[in-house]
């Protein structure tokens, strides 16, 4: 009798565990979907940040080139002014 009762209790415990697992499975699936969505959003944000960093680096490069061009133009004006001062025929 005790063995039958122990088996019945064990069967009820196993059945309870199976019911709990089967009920929690959709919750796990929902959590997995939320995790995937969050991962996708995080990847998109990371890509956006990488694009911003790349754009920032390009902008910095263009500003550096612009400064160099401006400095070159100032030097050219200075050369032209000097040339025109000493030889006004060429201006």
TrEMBL record:
<protein>
    <recommendedName>
        <fullName>Somatostatin/Cortistatin C-terminal domain-containing protein</fullName>
    </recommendedName>
</protein>
<keyword id="KW-0732">Signal</keyword>
<feature type="signal peptide">
    <location>
        <begin position="1"/>
        <end position="24"/>
    </location>
</feature>
């Amino acid at each position: 009798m005790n063995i039958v009762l122990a088996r019945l209790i064990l069967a009820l415990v196993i059945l309870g565990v199976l019911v709990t697992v089967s009920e929690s499975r959709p919750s796990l699936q929902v959590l997995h979907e939320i995790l995937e969505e969050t991962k996708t959003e995080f990847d998109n944000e990371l890509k956006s940040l990488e694009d911003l960093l790349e754009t920032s680096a390009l902008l910095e490069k263009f500003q550096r080139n612009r400064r160099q061009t401006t400095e070159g133009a100032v030097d050219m004006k200075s050369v032209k002014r000097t040339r025109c001062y000493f030889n006004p025929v060429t201006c």
